[in-house]
Structures are given as structure tokens and as C-alpha cells.
Automatic annotation (TrEMBL):
One GO biological process term: transmembrane transport
A GO cellular-component term linked to this record: cell envelope
Superkingdom per UniProt: Bacteria
Domain Periplasmic binding protein intervals: 77-335
Pfam families: Peripla_BP_4
SUPFAM superfamilies named among the record's database cross-references: Periplasmic binding protein-like I
Keyword Signal tagged: yes
Entry's family note: Belongs to the bacterial solute-binding protein 2 family.
Compartments it resides in: Cell envelope
Name recorded for this polypeptide: Autoinducer 2-binding protein LuxP
Species this chain originates from: Halomonas stenophila
GO MF annotation terms: carbohydrate binding
Length: 381
């Protein structure tokens, strides 16, 4: 592709918009979960992706090289995020994305929409309709629930706008012949394995644990499901309760209080997201169990790092956050340069394990790398 991608225009545009959002807020019948292909399995099926992913990662980690031939008109980029959370992952991703686009000298218009995960379904439908009515060249969206899948499939069938799926690095098997432009984020399974190995070893591979899921869907399956599978390998480890929290801190707090009352010998709590972990932490503090029951974060954003420094969290998987914003900008630059074939199917950023034993100096070093554009310093590339 050279120059700006074709835009969605005409009467069909409005028909498509209405069709896309009509099912977003509607109830969806239960059915078997879709098969997600893990990163390693996708590369095994498509070995040419290994070199593409490695070359693209080098581009992400290197200083920005401006676009040689800018398009005649600014490209339009719509971002629809479930970003109203304590976790600063989505905000930092957007900041890094915009900063890298500027450094690449890609002329662009960026329109962002934020909502709460799970509870703002109708708002998200309206936001998506507004985003598509704006006729963007690129749409950054996510996939966590079945209604999202319906929308994505219709966009893929249409072929425009170019679709970037964020916070998912595992393509669906049924989409193998027609993938989105880019899957971008961090491998939930990899991060959870790091956390689980540390927690289970610290607990001597025994004890009771509480599972605090996010919302029913992708993140809960990849994070919570992975931890549960790893814990099940040890006969002396028992899951005594599990709750879906809808990513709500208050629900996580109540679930933790109830479980502590019913199971006073609780050893571990696995939390699938930042807000969930902070709700559980409040319950542990109020019951005098902080420091006794192992508790994780997931993502390593500012709120988690502060809680870990204060002794409230024991471990987290720190995403090198800004990599995914930079990756989206670099993919768009390649597309505008007529080099879309150099964009891999997946970009999965690096993850580092941080525990209560990690030195402040090492944490500071990782923070500088993780947030190098969302909190720019004079030496940031």
C-alpha cells in the first residue's frame, strides 16, 4: 500500500456501522470458547513469521526513522479502548503510540474513545459507531468478549478500516485465512507462567488459593485459566473459591473478604488484573492478612509498583508497556511505505518478573525502559 488507505464511504458505510454495533449490547448465548492459537503454535504453523517478528522487534526497540514519503492527507486513526481502569496500561499505550507517530513524522489525526471494561457495553457501542462514522483508515480495538468477535469478523470481511487488535497476541484458529492487520500486546500466558512459578514455589507447592477472574472472556481465560492449570499439577494446591469480578475493585474486595472468612488458612490469591488485585489488597489489610497471603498484580503499571514497594503486592509481571504503542506506529509506517508484508501477524512485547525481592535500582531501570515514551526523558529514543 502506498499513501492513505481507501476510506469507508457512502450509504454502505452507515449500513455497516449499524450492523456492527447492533449486536454489541445484546445478550449472547453461551457456547464453547473459541480456539486461540498461542504465539509459539502460530509460529510453528507459519515459520516465515519468526524472522518477520524478530526484524519487527528490532524496529520497535530502535530509534525512530521518519517516514520517507508522507501521504497526501493525514491518516485517520480511531482508538476504542476499555481504558477507564486503575491500570495505566491503555493510557500509556496511547501516549507511546502518539509520541512514536510524531517521531516517525507520520501526518495523522487520532481520535480516542475510553470506556470501562464489561459495564459500559452500550457506551462502547456508541463509541464504536462514532469511530466508524468518522471513516478512519485504521481502527485499534480489542477482543475480550464474544460481541467483540462479531464486530471484528464483519470488519475483516469488509477489509477496511485496517484493524489492529490490541491486548491479544493469540489469533483465532477460524481467522487463519483472514487475519487482522496486527495483533499487538503482551503474552498473557507467558506473564502468568512467570507469576505462577514464583508464587507456587514460594508457597512450597501447597495450600489453598482464591481465583479472582476479570470478566468472562479472553483475559480471564489466558491469565486465570493458565494459573489454574499450572496449580492443578500439584496435588497439595487447592482452589477453594473463584469469582468473576468484572474488573471491579469493590467486587474483588467483597469476594476476598468472603473467602478469608470461609477459609482462614488461605495461602494465595491470584488476581487477573490491577483493579482486582487492589481490591483484594484492601481486604487483606482490613483483616490483618497483608504479608501473610501471597497476592500478585498483573502488568506492572504505576499503581501496582507503588503497592509492591509498600509491601502490599508480592509479585507482578511488568509489561515493557510502551513497546506496544511503538509497534502500532511502526506497523502503520510500514503500511504507508508500501511494505505491509513486513508487518508480522503478532507483536508480543517483553515481560519482566518483579517480586518483593527485586531491588529498587532494577525496578527503576525496568520502569525507564517500559515507560520510555509515556514518561519521556531527554535521552529517550
Amino acid at each position: 500500500m502506498q499513501g492513505s488507505p481507501p476510506r469507508l464511504t457512502g450509504p454502505f458505510a452507515w449500513f455497516l456501522i449499524l450492523a456492527l454495533v447492533a449486536g454489541l449490547g445484546a445478550g449472547v448465548p453461551a457456547r464453547a470458547e473459541n480456539e486461540y492459537i498461542r504465539v509459539a503454535d502460530h509460529v510453528a504453523r507459519h515459520p516465515e513469521q519468526r524472522a518477520l517478528m524478530a526484524q519487527f522487534a528490532e524496529r520497535v526497540h530502535a530509534p525512530a526513522v521518519p517516514l520517507a514519503t508522507p501521504p497526501e492527507a493525514p491518516v485517520r486513526i480511531a482508538v476504542v479502548y476499555p481504558g477507564l481502569q486503575t491500570s495505566d496500561y491503555w493510557r500509556r499505550s496511547l501516549d507511546a503510540f502518539a509520541a512514536r507517530l510524531r517521531r516517525l513524522e507520520v501526518p495523522h489525526e487520532l481520535k480516542a474513545f475510553f470506556s470501562r471494561p464489561s459495564v459500559d457495553v452500550e457506551l462502547q457501542a456508541r463509541q464504536l459507531a462514532e469511530a466508524l462514522a468518522w471513516e478512519p483508515d485504521y481502527l485499534v480495538f480489542t477482543l475480550n468478549a464474544l460481541p467483540h468477535k462479531r464486530i471484528i469478523e464483519r470488519l475483516l470481511a469488509r477489509g477496511e478500516p485496517r484493524l489492529i487488535l490490541q491486548n491479544i497476541t493469540t489469533p483465532l484458529a477460524e481467522w487463519q485465512g483472514h487475519l487482522p492487520f496486527l495483533h499487538v500486546g503482551f503474552d498473557h500466558v507467558q506473564g502468568t507462567r512467570l507469576i505462577a512459578d514464583w508464587m507456587l514455589e514460594r508457597a512450597d507447592h501447597r495450600g489453598e488459593y482464591l481465583m479472582l477472574y476479570f470478566i468472562p472472556g479472553y483475559v480471564s481465560r489466558m491469565r486465570g485459566g493458565t494459573f489454574a492449570a499450572l496449580a492443578a499439577q500439584y496435588p497439595a494446591v487447592e482452589q477453594v473459591a473463584a469469582y468473576y469480578t468484572d474488573g471491579d475493585s469493590e467486587r474483588a474486595y467483597r469476594a476476598t473478604r468472603q473467602t478469608l472468612e470461609a477459609h482462614p488458612d488461605l495461602t494465595m490469591i491470584f488476581a487477573c488484573a490491577t483493579d482486582v488485585a487492589l481490591g483484594a489488597l484492601r481486604a487483606l489489610r482490613e483483616t490483618g492478612r497483608e504479608g501473610e497471603v501471597l497476592l500478585n498484580g498483573w502488568g506492572g503499571g504505576t499503581a501496582e509498583l507503588e503497592a509492591l514497594a509498600a509491601g502490599g503486592l508480592d509479585v507482578t509481571a511488568l509489561r515493557l508497556n510502551d513497546d506496544n504503542g511503538i509497534a502500532m506506529a511502526e506497523a502503520i509506517k510500514l503500511d504507508l511505505s508500501g511494505q505491509a508484508r513486513r508487518v508480522p501477524d503478532i507483536f508480543a512485547g517483553d515481560i519482566a518478573l518483579i517480586t518483593r525481592d527485586t531491588s529498587p535500582g532494577e525496578i527503576a531501570r525496568l520502569e525507564r525502559r517500559a515507560f520510555r515514551l509515556s514518561e519521556p526523558s531527554p535521552e529517550a529514543p
